[in-house]
Amino acid sequence: MEDFEKVYTEYFNLIFGFVLSLCHDEALAEEVTQESFFKALKSIDKFRGDCKLSVWLCQIAKNTLNTELQKQKRYAETDENTLPDNETPEEMLVRKETAKELHFLLHDLAEPYKEVFWMRTFGELSFREIGEIFEKTESWARVTYHRARLKLKEGLK
Fold first, then answer.
1. Of 107, 16, 15, whose CA–CA distance to 57 is shortest?
2. 66 in the same domain as 11
3. Could you tell me if residue 83 is inside a domain?
4. Is the pLDDT of residue 146 over 50?
5. What is the tens place of the pLDDT at every residue in 24-68?
6. How far, in Å, are 104, 132, 151, 157 from residue 94 at the CA level?
7. What CA dihedral angle connects 51, 147, 141 and 67, to 10 degrees?
8. Which one, of 100, 20, 99, lies nearest residue 61 by Cα?
9. In terms of DSSP H, where are the helices of 46-126?
10. Using an 8 Å Cβ cutoff, are 18 and 133 in contact?
11. Closest listed residue to residue 50, CA positions, set 111, 104, 131
12. Rounded distance, CA 103 to CA 87, Å?
């Protein structure tokens, strides 16, 4: 337990910053970060060391955030039948199909490409921040991100 307190102290700011960069909501980021560390504590025996501890914690945080956003989405009252201005039903269908295809391609993308692409695109993290999370260089993060983009573009063709 004492060791986990060290982990919490050492990685809290990194995980909180990562979650905040994804959701842009301090209260939600705080809640998700706390929940993520609670989940990590419960499953610390499952950490095999296949990746850096920071990457493992970021993955837990990302999954926790996704779960929370899905809950919020279910409870939110949205009118999905409304079309955006100037978008025909056909254009909307193509956009949704492409997004769905891209989601599957991203899901099947090998690590670390998937995580780096996700952090850069959806997390809006800088290449420097991504490099720090993986304990690599900024150049490594940049190259990995661009290779991931190429793989996704190839898959969409």
1. 15
2. yes
3. no
4. yes
5. 888 899 999 999 988 988 888 788 778 888 888 988 999 999 888
6. 15, 37, 21, 14
7. -60
8. 20
9. 53-75, 89-108, 113-121
10. yes
11. 111
12. 22
CB 21 within 8 A of CB 124: yes
State yes or no: pLDDT of 5 exceeds 50: yes
Q: Which of 19, 43, 76 is the last residue of a domain?
A: 76
Tokens of 42: 């419960």
**Separation of alpha carbons 48 and 63, rounded Å:** 18
Residue type (1 letter), 9:
T
Over residues 94-108, the pLDDT tens digits come to 666 777 777 777 778
The reply to whether the predicted model has a pTM over 0.70 is no
Tell whether 118 is covered by a domain. yes
Whether residues 28 and 97 share a domain: the answer is no
Contact 29, 61 (CB under 8 A): no
Tens of pLDDT, residue by residue over 120-135, are 877 778 888 888 888 8
